[in-house]
Specification:
Elements lengths: L1 H49 L9 H4 L3 E2 L2 E7 L14 E7 L2 E9 L2 H17 L5 E5 L7 E8 L3 E8 L2 E7 L6 H9 L8
Antiparallel strand pairs: 1-2, 2-3, 3-4, 4-8, 5-6, 6-7, 7-8
Length: 196
């Protein structure tokens, strides 16, 4: 009987040591990971808040910078429909290229509620695509004017949707490599003030 109690106590002590060691090893890593993600999101919000947004009635040529992180603006127009994502509102459209890489940018002057609805449409399109994809979401806060969605699936490529200052910006590419660096640089790059 004492032998069984001794084994039971040994198992409990071993489990306690294992849980303590796991907590000492993994909790700091989890805390560091959470801090890193929070810092990244705060940086995104700061970039979005600093963006020099165009006037709501700006012509497409006035919405987009000529160069963004090594990407050249190939064209800017008002063909802003994205049927694959069920986006069918008036806006501006641009195509950027760098070598074999191509990024399309769509800019929609919309309210926060319209942006939320358009983001939800895009999310549904990815869900209905039928292929497993990556989805990262930061909701539009009622007290703030910032929101972000990242969607990726083999059939639809990747889409970064950012809402800030009354504009929903949609960045789409078939590239496998994440193009968030392009998005960040787009928001940091001064726009053209004149036409083409």
């Amino acid at each position: 009987m004492w032998k069984i109690i001794g084994i039971g106590c040994g198992v409990v002590v071993a489990l306690g040591v294992a849980v303590t060691v796991a907590a000492l090893v993994f909790v700091p890593r989890l805390f560091d990971f959470a801090q890193k993600k929070l810092a990244e999101e705060q940086e995104r919000q700061a970039i979005a808040a600093a963006w020099d947004a165009p006037d709501r009635g700006a012509a497409p040529a006035q919405v987009f910078p000529l160069m963004v992180k090594g990407y050249r603006l190939d064209r800017a127009d008002d063909r802003a429909d994205v049927p694959e994502l069920n986006l069918d509102v008036k806006g501006a459209h641009a195509v950027y290229s760098a070598g074999a890489s191509r990024v399309e940018v769509f800019a929609y002057p919309v309210s926060k509620l319209e942006a939320e609805a358009l983001m939800a449409r895009a999310e549904r399109a990815y869900e209905q695509d039928g292929e497993r994809g990556v989805r990262e979401f930061t909701s539009v806060d009622i007290e703030d004017s910032y929101g972000r969605v990242y969607l990726s699936a083999p059939g639809l490529g990747q889409s970064h949707l950012w809402f800030t200052k009354g504009w929903l910006l949609v960045f789409r590419t078939p590239d496998a490599e994440d193009r968030e660096a392009f998005v960040r640089e787009f928001l940091r790059t001064p726009r053209r003030q004149g036409g083409v």
